[in-house]
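I hope you will forgive my troubling you with a question about protein structure. Could you please explain, in whatever detail you think fit, how the C-alpha cells follow from the sequence? Thank you for your consideration; the sequence and its C-alpha cells are set out here.
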Amino acid sequence: MSSSSGVLVVVTVMASENTGVPMSGPAQAGLFIYAKDLPRLAGFYESLLGMSRVHAASDLVVLHSPDIQLTLHAIPPAIAASISISSPPDRREDAALKFFFTVPSIAEATAKAPALGGEVLPEQWLGSGFRVCNAVDPEGNIFQIRENAA
C-alpha cells in the first residue's frame, strides 16, 4: 500500500505469499475496514468468524474465508490520535453500509464476542433460509452475522 499526492493505492496480496494458505486467485469479494487498533480488530474478526490470516504487516492485515477477503488497514497515527473509542464502543449506527458474515452458530458467536471486545445483539430475524442478528466489533462498527436455518 502506498500513499502519495493524496492518492491511496491498495495492493492485494496472494495468501500463499505470506502464510502458505493456498488461494485460487484474487478474491472475488472483499471488505476494507480502517482500524484504530489494528491488532485488536483483526483478532476479533479472525477469531469470531474463523477466518485465516493470509498477510500481516504493521499497518495491514488480510483475512480470508471461502466467501470473502477482509482487509484491515491501520488508521495513520496522526489521525488515530484524534479518535476516541469508548469501552464498550459507541455503536456507529449511522453508517450507510452494513456487511454480513455467515457463522456456524449465532449462539457460539454470542458467547465468544465479549472476550474479543465485541457484542452480538440479542434481537434476531428469520430470512429465507437463515437466521440473522446484528453484532458490534471493538471499534463500534455494526455488522450482521447469519446462520443457516434448519
About this structure: Helices lie at 15-18, 38-49, 77-80, 106-112. The chain has four helices and ten strands.
